[in-house]
C-alpha cells in the first residue's frame, strides 16, 4: 500500500466515495477526537493535561504506527499463502483490516504489561514485541516457534514479553487476565514487583463480550480496582453471525457502567483516533483503574481460511470494506501521511516478514518426544517437596510475611496452627477438613505467594478447609468469590502464570463442573506454551458418592471421572487426615496443576496425623495387606478403591476375615498418573483384582484402571477384573433405589467371595 503513487491513492479515494451497497447492515462509524474528549472528561474524569498528552501524536508515533500496520498486513498475507501451501495447518484466524489495534499496542503497551489475547493473536504478539520469526515458526509447527510448535496459530505465548496467550475458547481469557491483574496488585502488596504502573490487557471480540464471563470479570475488576483494560475488537461478526442478531445491545463500552467502569468507543479505521483514544484509556488504567476500549473495525477475511462465508451480505460487506474501510489506505490519504516515511516503513516491514519466513522455513521440527516430556512441570516422582523452598527463598519469604501480616495477627495465626497440630497428635485425632486447613495455613504463612480462592471463605466454607485464611492474610491473598467456580478457577490460572501458587477450594467437588474449561486449560498450559509457564495451582473439593448419601444426582456426580481425561492434571484423593494433609502440602508446592478430592460424607471423620509429612503425588497407598495364610489358600484379592470406598472396604475386610478371606487394600491416593508399581506388587501376590468405584460403568475411574491393568499387567491376572461401580443412571435420592446404584461393603464382600 505504501508504494502507490499519489494519483493512485487519489483514485482509491474516489472509489471509496462510492456509496456502500444497499444491502449492507453495518457501516463505518466515526469517533472524532474532539467528540471523544467529552467522554474522557465526563466518564473517565481526565484532566485537560492528560487529554492533551494522549492526543499529541509525534512523527515518531505515526511512523511506528504505520510500520506496525504494514508489518501486520504483510505478515498475515504471508500466513495466508503459507496456509494454502500446506505449511500452516489446523485453524488459523487472520487480522487483516484491524491493524490499528496492534498499532496502539506498539505505541502504548509496555514489555512489562501482561497481555492475554484470543485465537486471532498473531498481530497482537508482533506488536507486543514477540519476534516475528518465532511467531511464524510456531505457525509452521517448528522447534524455533514461540512454543516449540506445541501451540500453533491460536496459542502464541512468549514469557520474555509477557505475552500470555493465545486462548482458543471464546472468552476464556477474561478471568485469566483478571488473575494476571490481581498478580500485579499482589506484587505491589508484597513489595516484590517491578514497574508498579504495569497493567493487564485482555482482548475479546464483541461477540465474546456477550459471554457471562465478561460481566463476572467487570465485577471483579471493579471490586478490587484492578489495573486491567478490556479491549473489545468489534468487527460486527461472531464468526459470521451478525452480532446484532444475538445481542440486544452491542455497546460493549457501556457494559461497565453498572460497575463504575468507564468505557469509550473508537473508529478502528482511523489509526490516529484509535491511538489517541486508546492511549487515554490505557493511561486511565495505569493511574486509576479498569476501563473498556471498544474498537469498531471490519475484518477483511473470513473467520478462518476454511470459512465459506455463506451468511447474508458477508461477501458484499468484505468487498466494500476492503475498498472503503482499509485503515492503511485511509491513513495514507490523510494529511498525517506526509509526516511518515511511507516507503521506508513499508520496506522495513517487508524485510522483517521475509526474515520471519526464512527463519520459519529453516527451523527444524520439534523432537517427537517433546509432547510427553511436557506433560508435567515436575515430572512424576522427581521432586522432594519437603525441600522445595519458595521461589523468593525462605529468608525473603519470612521477611515479606512479617511485613504484610500484622504482628498480632501473625501471633494469633501461629497459635491457631499450633492448636491444629496439637489436635493432630491427640488421641481423638483431627478431621479431614481441619487437616487440610492446617496444610493450607502452614503453606500460606511460609510462602507469601500462596493465595486462596473460595466461596464462603470468611466462614471457612463447608468443611473449614480455607478457615482463618482471610482473617490472617486479608482479602487480596484470601479472596471470597462469587458463586461461579469457573470464574475463580480462571483467576487462579492467571495468578499461577505470574508467580503465585493459588489454592482453590470448591466446597463440593461437583461444583467444579462449572470450571471444566478452565481446568482443561490449566492442564494444557505448561505443554501448550512449550514449557514456558508453570501452573502451580491446587484445586481441592469434597465429593464422591457415599452409600446412603441422599444428595440426589447433581451432588453425586463422578467429577473425578470427568476430569481424568484432562492432560497435565495430577489427580489425587484422600480418605483420611494423614493422606489429605500430606497430599495437600505436596500439591501446593508442585509446579503443575493438581486436584485433590476428599470424601464429602467423611469430612468430619477424625484420625491420626503426623505433621510435616509430604506424600508423593504419583503413589497409591497400601492401607491393608492380606495375610500370608489367605494368600497361600487363594483366598485373597487386591482391591483398588478411593474416597468413601476406603472405609467401605475396611468394613468389608472385617467381615471377610471372619470367613477366611482377606484383601490387599490399595487406596488410589493417586488417580492420575497410574501407580503401576504398587498395583503390580500386590497382583503378584493375589492374582485377582476388584475395583470398588465411585463412578459410572461407562467412562469411570474403574474403567480406566481395569483397562490399564489389562494392558500392562494381564499376565498377573487369574480372573477377569471385577468392577463394582455405579451404573450409568443418575444417582437417585430414595434409599431403596440408591442401594441398587451405589456399591458398598456388602457388595465387596460378595464380590471377593465370588472371585475366590
TrEMBL record:
Keyword list, A-Z: Oxidoreductase, Thiamine pyrophosphate
MF-aspect GO terms: pyruvate dehydrogenase (acetyl-transferring) activity
Known cofactor(s): thiamine diphosphate
Residue ranges of every copy of the Transketolase-like pyrimidine-binding domain listed in the record: 430-605
InterPro entries, alphabetized: DH_E1, PDH_E1_Alpha_Subunit, THDP-binding, Transketo_C/PFOR_II, Transketolase-like_Pyr-bd, Transketolase_C
Highest taxon, organism lineage: Eukaryota
DNA-binding found in the keyword field: no
A Gene Ontology biological process term: pyruvate decarboxylation to acetyl-CoA
SMART domains, alphabetized: Transket_pyr
Keyword Oxidoreductase assigned: yes
Protein's name according to its UniProt entry: Transketolase-like pyrimidine-binding domain-containing protein
